[in-house]
Amino acid sequence: MRSGQRDEYRVARSRSGAVLIMVLACLTTASTILFGALALSLRYQRQFRNEVQMEQTHWLLDAGIDAAIAKFESNPGFTHHSLATGDKFGSGVGSVTIDVIERIGNRAVMQVTARLQGQHSHSPVTQRSRVFALDISTTEPKSLPD
Predict the structure, then answer these.
(1) Interacting residues of 12 by C-beta distance below 8 A, sequence separation 6+
(2) How far, in Å, CA of 42 to CA of 45, rounded?
(3) Which of the chain's termini has less CB crowding within 10 Å, N or C?
(4) pLDDT digits (tens, 9 = 90+) for 57-74
(5) What residues have CB less than 8 Å from 117, skipping those under 6 apart?
(6) For the segment 100-136, what is each residue's pLDDT rounded down to a tens digit?
(7) Is the Cα torsion angle 65, 67, 73, 79 positive or negative in sign?
(8) What's the CA gap between 10 and 4, in Å, rounded?
(9) CB–CB of 94/60 below 8 Å?
(10) Are strands 93-104 and 125-135 parallel, antiparallel or unpaired?
């Protein structure tokens, strides 16, 4: 091999090394962007799932309040009642606890607590609670004039 050919060979090898470094740098940048987008997407998915579960817990609390009113109307002497939802709709296992905190005549102060464990084992437990007073009148309502 002549010395001119050797110099051309060295220049060609150094150029292919530079191209390899540029390709690796581009792949690294693309991978970093891809994994960042994936992490962000997973974070948004988890946040959305938690918000949906909080809304479901709110609905469960509303149903528990309705159950507390119905229970008090049918049995004014009760002090504690628990309900469980099971996982019928794939939204997690829920429970509602109704406790009468204070009772004065036909007035009862109740605390209703709703808890929901998401359908996944790593899902958080969400809980909402409300305290309210309920008056049940024992007098007959006045009739309206004809």
Answers:
(1) none
(2) 5
(3) C
(4) 999 999 999 999 888 888
(5) 92, 93, 94, 123, 125
(6) 999 887 788 999 999 998 777 777 889 999 999 888 7
(7) negative
(8) 10
(9) yes
(10) unpaired
* Share in percent of the chain as helix, strand, coil (round to 5): 50, 30, 25
Sheet (strand 80-86) strand order: 80-86, 93-104, 107-117, 125-135
113 closest CA partner among 134, 127, 92, 133: 127
pTM of the predicted structure, to 2 decimals: 0.68
Query: Which residues, 6 or more positions from 139, have their beta carbon under 8 angstroms from its beta carbon?
Result: none
Assign 107 to helix, strand or coil.
Answer: strand
What's the half-sphere exposure (Cβ side, CA atoms, 13 Å) at 127?
9
**HSE (side-chain half, CA atoms, 13 Å) at 131:** 4
Residue 8 is encoded by which pair of tokens? 């051309």
Q: Residue-wise over 48-59: b if at least 16 C-beta within 10 A, else e?
A: eeeeebeebbee
